[in-house]
Design a protein that fits this description.
The chain contains 16 helices and 15 strands. It is α/β, with parallel strands linked by helices. The chain folds into two domains: 2-160, Response regulator (Rossmann fold); 178-365, Alpha-Beta Barrel (TIM Barrel), CATH 3.20.20.70. The strands form three sheets. The protein has a seven-stranded mixed β-sheet, sandwiched between helices. It has a six-stranded parallel β-sheet with strand order 8-11-12-13-14-15. It has a two-stranded antiparallel ribbon with strand order 9-10. β11, α9 (258-265) and β12 (270-275) form a beta-alpha-beta unit. The longest helix is centred in the middle third of the chain and has 13 residues, at 229-241. The chain is globular.
Length: 427
Protein backbone atom coordinates (compact mmCIF):
# COMPACT_ATOMS: atom_id res chain seq x y z
CA UNK A 1 0.00 0.00 0.00
CA UNK A 2 0.96 3.62 -0.43
CA UNK A 3 0.70 6.17 2.39
CA UNK A 4 1.02 9.94 2.02
CA UNK A 5 1.89 11.46 5.42
CA UNK A 6 1.22 15.19 5.39
CA UNK A 7 2.24 17.95 7.78
CA UNK A 8 0.78 21.05 6.07
CA UNK A 9 2.45 24.35 5.32
CA UNK A 10 0.94 26.07 8.34
CA UNK A 11 -0.34 29.62 8.60
CA UNK A 12 -1.43 31.18 11.88
CA UNK A 13 -3.03 34.53 11.00
CA UNK A 14 -5.59 35.49 13.64
CA UNK A 15 -4.90 32.36 15.70
CA UNK A 16 -4.41 32.10 19.48
CA UNK A 17 -1.74 29.46 18.73
CA UNK A 18 0.94 29.54 21.46
CA UNK A 19 3.47 27.20 19.91
CA UNK A 20 6.64 28.03 18.03
CA UNK A 21 5.98 28.84 14.37
CA UNK A 22 9.32 27.60 13.02
CA UNK A 23 9.71 24.20 11.31
CA UNK A 24 10.26 21.11 13.50
CA UNK A 25 10.78 17.45 12.72
CA UNK A 26 7.44 15.64 12.16
CA UNK A 27 8.19 12.94 14.75
CA UNK A 28 4.80 11.20 14.62
CA UNK A 29 5.13 10.72 10.88
CA UNK A 30 8.79 9.75 11.16
CA UNK A 31 7.85 6.78 13.35
CA UNK A 32 4.84 5.97 11.17
CA UNK A 33 6.90 6.02 7.98
CA UNK A 34 9.50 3.61 9.34
CA UNK A 35 6.92 1.19 10.79
CA UNK A 36 4.94 1.15 7.54
CA UNK A 37 8.04 0.70 5.39
CA UNK A 38 9.15 -2.20 7.61
CA UNK A 39 5.97 -3.98 6.51
CA UNK A 40 6.60 -3.27 2.85
CA UNK A 41 4.46 -0.19 2.31
CA UNK A 42 5.56 2.85 0.31
CA UNK A 43 5.44 6.25 2.03
CA UNK A 44 5.59 9.85 0.92
CA UNK A 45 6.32 12.12 3.90
CA UNK A 46 5.83 15.81 3.18
CA UNK A 47 6.31 18.64 5.69
CA UNK A 48 5.19 21.98 4.30
CA UNK A 49 7.32 24.17 6.56
CA UNK A 50 10.43 22.01 6.95
CA UNK A 51 10.51 20.96 3.30
CA UNK A 52 9.78 24.52 2.21
CA UNK A 53 6.85 23.61 -0.03
CA UNK A 54 3.45 25.23 -0.38
CA UNK A 55 0.16 23.45 0.10
CA UNK A 56 -0.29 23.72 -3.68
CA UNK A 57 2.91 21.71 -4.12
CA UNK A 58 1.82 19.23 -1.44
CA UNK A 59 -1.42 18.61 -3.33
CA UNK A 60 0.48 18.14 -6.60
CA UNK A 61 2.93 15.64 -5.13
CA UNK A 62 0.27 13.66 -3.27
CA UNK A 63 -1.89 13.29 -6.36
CA UNK A 64 1.12 12.19 -8.40
CA UNK A 65 1.97 9.61 -5.70
CA UNK A 66 -1.56 8.10 -5.92
CA UNK A 67 -1.76 6.93 -2.30
CA UNK A 68 -4.12 4.38 -0.85
CA UNK A 69 -4.21 6.50 2.33
CA UNK A 70 -3.66 10.23 2.72
CA UNK A 71 -2.92 11.14 6.35
CA UNK A 72 -3.10 14.78 7.55
CA UNK A 73 -2.21 16.05 11.01
CA UNK A 74 -4.26 18.76 12.75
CA UNK A 75 -1.32 20.19 14.74
CA UNK A 76 2.27 21.05 13.79
CA UNK A 77 4.25 18.03 15.11
CA UNK A 78 3.96 16.12 18.41
CA UNK A 79 5.67 18.97 20.26
CA UNK A 80 2.52 21.06 19.83
CA UNK A 81 -0.31 18.54 20.11
CA UNK A 82 -0.90 19.88 23.66
CA UNK A 83 -1.21 23.50 22.50
CA UNK A 84 -2.57 23.07 18.99
CA UNK A 85 -4.18 25.82 16.91
CA UNK A 86 -7.86 25.47 17.90
CA UNK A 87 -8.95 26.12 14.33
CA UNK A 88 -8.62 23.42 11.67
CA UNK A 89 -8.48 25.86 8.77
CA UNK A 90 -5.27 24.62 7.17
CA UNK A 91 -5.80 20.84 7.50
CA UNK A 92 -9.43 21.30 6.49
CA UNK A 93 -8.42 23.10 3.28
CA UNK A 94 -5.93 20.38 2.44
CA UNK A 95 -8.54 17.73 3.15
CA UNK A 96 -10.97 19.48 0.76
CA UNK A 97 -8.35 19.45 -2.00
CA UNK A 98 -7.18 15.88 -1.40
CA UNK A 99 -10.51 14.16 -0.85
CA UNK A 100 -10.70 11.17 -3.17
CA UNK A 101 -6.92 10.80 -3.25
CA UNK A 102 -6.97 7.56 -1.32
CA UNK A 103 -8.78 7.11 1.96
CA UNK A 104 -8.45 10.28 4.02
CA UNK A 105 -7.21 9.95 7.61
CA UNK A 106 -6.98 12.75 10.17
CA UNK A 107 -4.57 12.45 13.11
CA UNK A 108 -3.81 14.85 15.93
CA UNK A 109 -5.47 16.46 18.95
CA UNK A 110 -8.72 17.36 17.18
CA UNK A 111 -9.17 13.84 15.81
CA UNK A 112 -8.34 12.38 19.23
CA UNK A 113 -10.55 14.65 21.35
CA UNK A 114 -13.44 15.61 19.06
CA UNK A 115 -13.43 12.91 16.36
CA UNK A 116 -16.99 13.33 15.12
CA UNK A 117 -16.57 17.07 14.62
CA UNK A 118 -13.23 16.45 12.91
CA UNK A 119 -14.78 13.97 10.49
CA UNK A 120 -17.65 16.33 9.70
CA UNK A 121 -15.37 19.33 9.15
CA UNK A 122 -12.93 17.50 6.90
CA UNK A 123 -15.02 14.80 5.24
CA UNK A 124 -12.31 12.29 6.18
CA UNK A 125 -12.85 8.54 6.21
CA UNK A 126 -11.12 8.02 9.55
CA UNK A 127 -10.08 9.99 12.62
CA UNK A 128 -7.31 8.39 14.65
CA UNK A 129 -7.96 8.26 18.40
CA UNK A 130 -4.75 8.97 20.28
CA UNK A 131 -1.21 8.39 19.06
CA UNK A 132 -1.15 7.41 15.42
CA UNK A 133 1.87 5.19 14.68
CA UNK A 134 0.42 1.76 15.49
CA UNK A 135 -3.08 2.75 14.37
CA UNK A 136 -1.88 3.48 10.84
CA UNK A 137 -0.31 0.02 10.80
CA UNK A 138 -3.67 -1.46 11.81
CA UNK A 139 -5.40 0.43 8.99
CA UNK A 140 -2.89 -0.97 6.51
CA UNK A 141 -3.65 -4.52 7.65
CA UNK A 142 -7.45 -4.35 7.80
CA UNK A 143 -9.36 -1.04 7.89
CA UNK A 144 -12.60 -2.83 8.78
CA UNK A 145 -11.25 -4.14 12.09
CA UNK A 146 -8.69 -1.44 12.96
CA UNK A 147 -9.08 -0.19 16.51
CA UNK A 148 -8.63 3.34 17.93
CA UNK A 149 -10.33 4.94 14.95
CA UNK A 150 -13.58 6.83 14.48
CA UNK A 151 -15.56 6.72 11.27
CA UNK A 152 -19.04 6.96 9.80
CA UNK A 153 -20.55 3.58 8.84
CA UNK A 154 -23.87 3.65 7.00
CA UNK A 155 -24.33 7.21 8.20
CA UNK A 156 -23.77 6.36 11.86
CA UNK A 157 -20.81 7.63 13.84
CA UNK A 158 -18.72 4.77 15.21
CA UNK A 159 -15.76 4.78 17.61
CA UNK A 160 -13.75 1.59 17.57
CA UNK A 161 -11.80 1.05 20.76
CA UNK A 162 -10.13 3.52 23.05
CA UNK A 163 -7.52 6.18 22.40
CA UNK A 164 -4.20 4.51 21.62
CA UNK A 165 -1.04 5.00 23.64
CA UNK A 166 1.83 3.72 21.51
CA UNK A 167 4.19 1.09 22.90
CA UNK A 168 7.42 3.08 23.19
CA UNK A 169 9.45 -0.15 23.26
CA UNK A 170 8.23 -0.95 19.75
CA UNK A 171 8.88 2.43 18.13
CA UNK A 172 12.14 2.47 16.15
CA UNK A 173 15.07 4.83 16.32
CA UNK A 174 14.29 7.51 13.76
CA UNK A 175 16.60 7.89 10.77
CA UNK A 176 16.00 11.10 8.85
CA UNK A 177 17.15 11.96 5.34
CA UNK A 178 20.36 13.97 5.45
CA UNK A 179 18.78 16.68 3.28
CA UNK A 180 15.88 17.13 5.73
CA UNK A 181 18.25 17.55 8.68
CA UNK A 182 20.40 19.97 6.69
CA UNK A 183 17.30 22.14 6.15
CA UNK A 184 16.49 22.16 9.87
CA UNK A 185 18.14 25.44 10.88
CA UNK A 186 15.87 26.14 13.84
CA UNK A 187 17.15 25.48 17.37
CA UNK A 188 13.97 25.27 19.42
CA UNK A 189 13.95 27.36 22.59
CA UNK A 190 17.67 28.14 22.37
CA UNK A 191 18.87 31.63 23.28
CA UNK A 192 22.49 31.23 24.39
CA UNK A 193 24.14 31.42 20.94
CA UNK A 194 23.43 31.84 17.26
CA UNK A 195 22.93 28.48 15.52
CA UNK A 196 25.86 27.20 13.49
CA UNK A 197 24.89 23.66 12.55
CA UNK A 198 21.44 22.11 12.14
CA UNK A 199 19.08 21.49 15.03
CA UNK A 200 16.73 18.57 15.68
CA UNK A 201 14.02 17.31 18.00
CA UNK A 202 13.50 13.88 19.53
CA UNK A 203 11.90 12.29 22.58
CA UNK A 204 13.39 10.30 25.43
CA UNK A 205 9.96 9.66 26.91
CA UNK A 206 6.30 10.28 26.22
CA UNK A 207 3.58 11.38 28.59
CA UNK A 208 3.76 12.70 32.13
CA UNK A 209 3.05 11.21 35.58
CA UNK A 210 1.33 14.47 36.60
CA UNK A 211 -2.11 15.69 35.55
CA UNK A 212 -1.95 19.47 35.75
CA UNK A 213 -5.28 21.03 34.82
CA UNK A 214 -3.91 23.15 31.97
CA UNK A 215 -2.27 20.30 30.04
CA UNK A 216 -4.30 18.94 27.12
CA UNK A 217 -3.08 15.36 27.16
CA UNK A 218 -6.05 13.33 28.40
CA UNK A 219 -6.52 11.75 24.97
CA UNK A 220 -2.92 11.39 23.74
CA UNK A 221 0.64 11.40 25.11
CA UNK A 222 -0.77 10.90 28.60
CA UNK A 223 0.72 8.00 30.57
CA UNK A 224 4.46 8.32 31.18
CA UNK A 225 6.57 5.90 29.08
CA UNK A 226 10.35 5.86 28.60
CA UNK A 227 12.06 4.89 25.36
CA UNK A 228 14.80 2.25 25.68
CA UNK A 229 18.18 3.92 26.11
CA UNK A 230 19.87 1.98 23.23
CA UNK A 231 17.14 3.21 20.84
CA UNK A 232 17.55 6.80 22.03
CA UNK A 233 21.31 6.64 21.54
CA UNK A 234 21.02 5.04 18.10
CA UNK A 235 18.78 7.90 16.99
CA UNK A 236 20.95 10.52 18.68
CA UNK A 237 24.20 9.21 17.18
CA UNK A 238 22.60 9.24 13.75
CA UNK A 239 21.64 12.89 14.18
CA UNK A 240 25.12 13.79 15.42
CA UNK A 241 26.65 12.03 12.40
CA UNK A 242 24.43 14.24 10.22
CA UNK A 243 25.95 17.33 11.81
CA UNK A 244 23.37 18.54 14.30
CA UNK A 245 24.67 21.02 16.85
CA UNK A 246 21.61 21.20 19.10
CA UNK A 247 18.90 18.77 20.17
CA UNK A 248 15.61 19.65 21.83
CA UNK A 249 13.81 16.93 23.80
CA UNK A 250 10.09 17.36 23.23
CA UNK A 251 9.17 15.18 26.26
CA UNK A 252 6.15 16.49 28.11
CA UNK A 253 8.42 16.37 31.13
CA UNK A 254 12.15 15.60 30.87
CA UNK A 255 12.80 13.75 34.13
CA UNK A 256 16.16 13.16 35.83
CA UNK A 257 17.80 10.05 34.37
CA UNK A 258 21.39 9.35 35.38
CA UNK A 259 22.10 6.88 32.58
CA UNK A 260 20.77 9.12 29.84
CA UNK A 261 22.54 12.22 31.18
CA UNK A 262 25.83 10.31 31.44
CA UNK A 263 25.48 9.13 27.84
CA UNK A 264 24.70 12.67 26.66
CA UNK A 265 27.76 13.99 28.51
CA UNK A 266 29.92 11.68 26.39
CA UNK A 267 28.62 13.20 23.15
CA UNK A 268 29.29 16.57 21.56
CA UNK A 269 25.81 18.06 21.41
CA UNK A 270 23.92 20.86 23.14
CA UNK A 271 20.43 20.09 24.45
CA UNK A 272 17.28 21.86 25.55
CA UNK A 273 14.52 20.46 27.77
CA UNK A 274 11.14 21.27 29.27
CA UNK A 275 10.66 20.09 32.83
CA UNK A 276 9.70 21.00 36.41
CA UNK A 277 12.55 22.42 38.47
CA UNK A 278 11.09 20.97 41.70
CA UNK A 279 11.91 17.47 40.42
CA UNK A 280 15.64 18.20 40.11
CA UNK A 281 18.01 18.26 43.06
CA UNK A 282 21.31 20.11 42.83
CA UNK A 283 23.34 17.01 41.93
CA UNK A 284 21.05 16.19 39.01
CA UNK A 285 21.10 19.79 37.79
CA UNK A 286 24.89 19.53 37.76
CA UNK A 287 24.58 16.33 35.70
CA UNK A 288 22.13 18.05 33.33
CA UNK A 289 24.61 20.87 32.77
CA UNK A 290 27.42 18.37 32.11
CA UNK A 291 25.14 16.65 29.60
CA UNK A 292 25.29 19.79 27.45
CA UNK A 293 22.07 21.47 28.51
CA UNK A 294 21.89 25.10 27.39
CA UNK A 295 18.13 25.68 27.79
CA UNK A 296 15.65 24.78 30.53
CA UNK A 297 11.98 25.67 30.21
CA UNK A 298 10.62 25.09 33.71
CA UNK A 299 6.92 25.00 34.47
CA UNK A 300 6.23 27.09 37.58
CA UNK A 301 2.87 28.47 36.42
CA UNK A 302 1.87 30.14 39.72
CA UNK A 303 3.86 31.96 42.42
CA UNK A 304 1.48 30.88 45.19
CA UNK A 305 0.81 27.52 46.75
CA UNK A 306 -2.92 28.18 46.27
CA UNK A 307 -2.44 28.78 42.55
CA UNK A 308 -0.34 25.66 42.11
CA UNK A 309 -2.90 23.67 44.08
CA UNK A 310 -5.69 24.95 41.79
CA UNK A 311 -3.65 23.71 38.83
CA UNK A 312 -3.18 20.35 40.58
CA UNK A 313 0.59 20.52 40.17
CA UNK A 314 1.28 18.57 43.36
CA UNK A 315 4.38 20.69 43.91
CA UNK A 316 6.07 20.03 47.25
CA UNK A 317 8.43 23.02 47.14
CA UNK A 318 7.72 26.52 48.41
CA UNK A 319 7.92 29.49 46.06
CA UNK A 320 11.15 30.62 47.75
CA UNK A 321 12.69 27.19 47.20
CA UNK A 322 11.56 27.14 43.58
CA UNK A 323 13.22 30.52 43.11
CA UNK A 324 16.47 29.30 44.67
CA UNK A 325 16.48 26.15 42.54
CA UNK A 326 15.92 28.17 39.36
CA UNK A 327 18.82 30.47 40.26
CA UNK A 328 21.04 27.48 41.01
CA UNK A 329 20.22 26.06 37.58
CA UNK A 330 20.96 29.38 35.87
CA UNK A 331 24.44 29.43 37.40
CA UNK A 332 25.16 26.26 35.41
CA UNK A 333 22.88 26.42 32.36
CA UNK A 334 23.00 29.45 30.01
CA UNK A 335 19.23 29.93 29.66
CA UNK A 336 16.57 29.14 32.27
CA UNK A 337 12.93 30.15 31.95
CA UNK A 338 10.16 30.01 34.53
CA UNK A 339 6.79 29.63 32.79
CA UNK A 340 3.95 31.60 34.39
CA UNK A 341 0.20 31.53 33.82
CA UNK A 342 -2.25 34.31 34.69
CA UNK A 343 -3.82 33.13 37.94
CA UNK A 344 -6.52 34.76 40.06
CA UNK A 345 -4.70 33.49 43.14
CA UNK A 346 -1.58 35.55 42.28
CA UNK A 347 -1.28 39.25 43.05
CA UNK A 348 0.00 41.17 40.00
CA UNK A 349 2.53 43.22 41.98
CA UNK A 350 3.88 40.10 43.68
CA UNK A 351 4.21 38.35 40.33
CA UNK A 352 6.18 41.28 38.96
CA UNK A 353 8.42 41.28 42.03
CA UNK A 354 9.00 37.54 41.51
CA UNK A 355 9.92 38.15 37.88
CA UNK A 356 12.28 41.02 38.72
CA UNK A 357 14.01 39.02 41.46
CA UNK A 358 14.65 36.16 39.05
CA UNK A 359 15.81 38.42 36.25
CA UNK A 360 18.46 39.92 38.55
CA UNK A 361 20.01 36.45 38.54
CA UNK A 362 19.53 35.94 34.81
CA UNK A 363 16.43 33.73 34.99
CA UNK A 364 13.73 34.80 32.56
CA UNK A 365 10.13 34.58 33.75
CA UNK A 366 7.50 35.44 31.15
CA UNK A 367 4.66 37.84 31.78
CA UNK A 368 1.80 35.56 32.87
CA UNK A 369 -0.08 34.09 29.92
CA UNK A 370 -3.87 33.55 30.03
CA UNK A 371 -4.79 29.89 30.37
CA UNK A 372 -6.58 28.49 27.31
CA UNK A 373 -8.97 25.68 28.37
CA UNK A 374 -7.98 23.16 25.70
CA UNK A 375 -10.50 20.39 25.06
CA UNK A 376 -8.91 17.27 26.48
CA UNK A 377 -7.49 19.10 29.49
CA UNK A 378 -8.78 18.85 33.06
CA UNK A 379 -9.34 22.62 32.91
CA UNK A 380 -11.88 22.18 30.11
CA UNK A 381 -13.58 19.28 31.88
CA UNK A 382 -13.74 21.28 35.11
CA UNK A 383 -15.67 24.03 33.31
CA UNK A 384 -17.91 22.13 30.89
CA UNK A 385 -17.58 18.37 31.29
CA UNK A 386 -16.46 15.97 28.58
CA UNK A 387 -15.68 17.60 25.20
CA UNK A 388 -18.50 17.50 22.66
CA UNK A 389 -18.68 18.48 18.99
CA UNK A 390 -18.40 22.21 19.73
CA UNK A 391 -15.74 21.94 22.42
CA UNK A 392 -13.10 23.92 20.52
CA UNK A 393 -15.59 26.67 19.66
CA UNK A 394 -16.79 26.86 23.28
CA UNK A 395 -13.28 27.06 24.72
CA UNK A 396 -12.19 29.63 22.16
CA UNK A 397 -15.21 31.87 22.74
CA UNK A 398 -14.70 31.75 26.52
CA UNK A 399 -11.03 32.63 26.09
CA UNK A 400 -11.73 35.66 23.88
CA UNK A 401 -14.43 36.91 26.26
CA UNK A 402 -12.33 36.33 29.35
CA UNK A 403 -9.18 38.29 28.47
CA UNK A 404 -8.18 41.59 26.91
CA UNK A 405 -4.47 40.78 26.62
CA UNK A 406 -3.03 37.53 25.33
CA UNK A 407 0.43 36.04 24.84
CA UNK A 408 3.42 38.07 23.68
CA UNK A 409 3.60 36.30 20.30
CA UNK A 410 0.08 37.37 19.33
CA UNK A 411 0.56 40.63 17.45
CA UNK A 412 -3.13 41.03 16.72
CA UNK A 413 -6.30 40.18 18.59
CA UNK A 414 -7.27 36.58 17.78
CA UNK A 415 -10.30 36.11 15.55
CA UNK A 416 -13.35 34.07 16.57
CA UNK A 417 -12.97 30.40 15.68
CA UNK A 418 -15.89 30.31 13.26
CA UNK A 419 -14.28 33.16 11.28
CA UNK A 420 -10.90 31.42 11.23
CA UNK A 421 -12.35 28.17 9.97
CA UNK A 422 -14.23 29.83 7.14
CA UNK A 423 -11.32 32.07 6.13
CA UNK A 424 -9.61 30.92 2.95
CA UNK A 425 -5.84 30.79 3.25
CA UNK A 426 -3.83 32.31 0.42
CA UNK A 427 -2.33 29.38 -1.47
Amino acid sequence: MRFALINPHWSFEGSIYFGCREPHLPLEFGYSEQLLEQEGHDCLLLDGLLDGISNDEIVRQVKAFEPDYTVITTAPTYLFWRCAPPEMRIPRELADRLRGTGRLVMVGPHASTTPRATLRKTGADYAVLGECEEVLLDLSRDPDTAQSVATFEDGDFVKRGVNRASDMKKLPALHWERERIARHHHHHHRFDAEPIGPGAEMEASRGCPYHCTFCAKDNFRNNYRKRPLPVILEELDGLIAQGIEYLYFIDEIFLPDKELLAALAERKVKIGVQTRIDLWNEDMIEALAKAGCVSIEAGVESITEAGRAYLDKKCKMSTDDLQKRLIFAKQRVPFVQANLLAMREDDADEVEAFRVALEKHGVWANKPVPLFPYPGSPEYTRAWGAPDDIAWERAHEAYLKGFDAFSDIQEQRPQPLIELETLTHGR
